[in-house]
Amino acid sequence: RAKEAGRGVTCFFEAEMEERLLERGLLEQDLRAALAKGEFSVSFQPLHNCGTRDVTSFEALLRWENPERGKVSPADFIPVAEECGLILPLGRWMLEQACTVAASWPHPYTVAVNLSPVQFQRGNLPAQVAEVLAQTGLPANQLELEVTEGLLIEDSEGALATMRALKALGVRLALDDFGTGYSSLSYLRRFPFDKLKIDKSFIQAIELDAGARAIVDAILAMGHSLNLRVTAEGVETEEQLAFLLRHDCDEVQGFLLGRPVPAEQLCRSLRKKVGAAMA
Ligand code: C2E
Ligand code: MG
Ligand code: MG
Ligand code: MG
């Protein structure tokens, strides 16, 4: 009896595993086709000066809309694109798009582009970035590249060399999602970052959790003592913004002050703003 039941369980897991693998394979197929079919687009979310609320820059965020699947979150498809290598052409496309759009803005805002560790490890990133800057005409000091801590753990020597080469081009580097990984202080000293972005999970706990407030405060103090600019991600309430302002946060990003918008919509509103300022 027990043996039979055991076999049933095994079969159940096998069937489930098989289904998951199949679904993964289908997602991978759709992803590969998506680039050629033009299903990807770029949205931009503003970052604001914490005190004045003026826009300082925009983060480029990848969007995928598939006729059958609808909108798929980058949190769901980026890991798959990384595993199957598609992140290399997709990352290159994203960099070109973001720089092209930013070069067309009527005001020289900085644009921030997220990079996968896979792009760092393969694909001669500094040469690629130099090429895209030359091709789009975007000044290097208007490009910021965001990386996560995973990169620094996996191959820190290689990452350091690549980061130094990127800095030599004149682009800026930001450490994204700070606080969720190992968050080692030695990374901050060792790698040439310009900016730290505090992960939204801490910001969203500001009103609820004294521990989160202490961590945010500590990250701000530490970042500033290392001469880094500090951005808070995921700011959704005035209370969060007030806390961040009191603790000398430099910059905020979040639904309270601005959601990600499609490139064309942002361009229209930037032109309108310039037109209004000149009228
Ligand atoms: P991220 O780089 O930390 O980007 C910020 C994410 O937080 C975005 O999610 C943004 O829409 C979301 N967000 C901003 N403000 C708020 C807020 O007030 N509340 C909440 N709940 N969320 C907020 P999104 O666009 O879904 O992207 C998720 C992640 O996918 C990004 O996190 C980034 O890690 C990755 N990603 C997006 N585009 C790219 C890309 O072009 N390349 C790579 N490698 N990764 C990307
Ligand atoms: Mg980011
Ligand atoms: Mg982030
Ligand atoms: Mg994040």
UniProtKB/TrEMBL annotation:
<protein>
    <submittedName>
        <fullName>Bifunctional diguanylate cyclase/phosphodiesterase</fullName>
    </submittedName>
</protein>
<feature type="domain" description="EAL">
    <location>
        <begin position="24"/>
        <end position="274"/>
    </location>
</feature>
